Every structure is written in structure tokens, then in C-alpha cells.
Structure of NADH dehydrogenase [ubiquinone] 1 alpha subcomplex subunit 1:
Amino acid sequence: MPVPFEALIPFGLLTVCFAATGTLFSIAKRATNDWKPPRYNIDTWDEMMMERDRRLTGSFRGQSTEPIAPKEFATNSVWQTERVN
């Protein structure tokens, strides 16, 4: 027995809705990662390097190729509440 054509319209609408939602979610996820793919299986070392990159460049995904850190890097430490003697 053939499928009635009336069933194809809701099926097409559902397919388009799921595809549009998935595509928009993927675009939003990449936009928050500086248009790079998301990171998976992040361990403690990766988190420390991401924090260092954020302090150097202002972005978690940005990386710097400069051999010398800028002067601001010395004062924007994550240990702001600890007094240095």
C-alpha cells in the first residue's frame, strides 16, 4: 500500500525544523569558540592553557606567537586576592 501524500507534508516540516535547529545550534557553538570546532575531553592541563591564552589574547581560543608576553600579562594574574611580598 503506498504512503498517502498527506503524510509527506508533516514529515517534511519535521525534517526541516530539526535540520534548522541543528544547524543554528552548530553555528552558535562555533561563534562562541571564535569560529573553531568545539573542544572535547578537556583535562586540567588544557584548562590551564586556555586560561593562559585568555590572559594573553583575551580569548579562550586565541593563541599568540609572540616570544615575549605583553607587560599586562604580569599584572592580570588569576591570583588577584593573594598578596605578593
The first helix runs from residue 8 to 32. The two ends are 84 Å apart (CA to CA). Residues 39 and 46 are 10 Å apart (CA to CA). The chain has two domains: 1-32, 39-79.
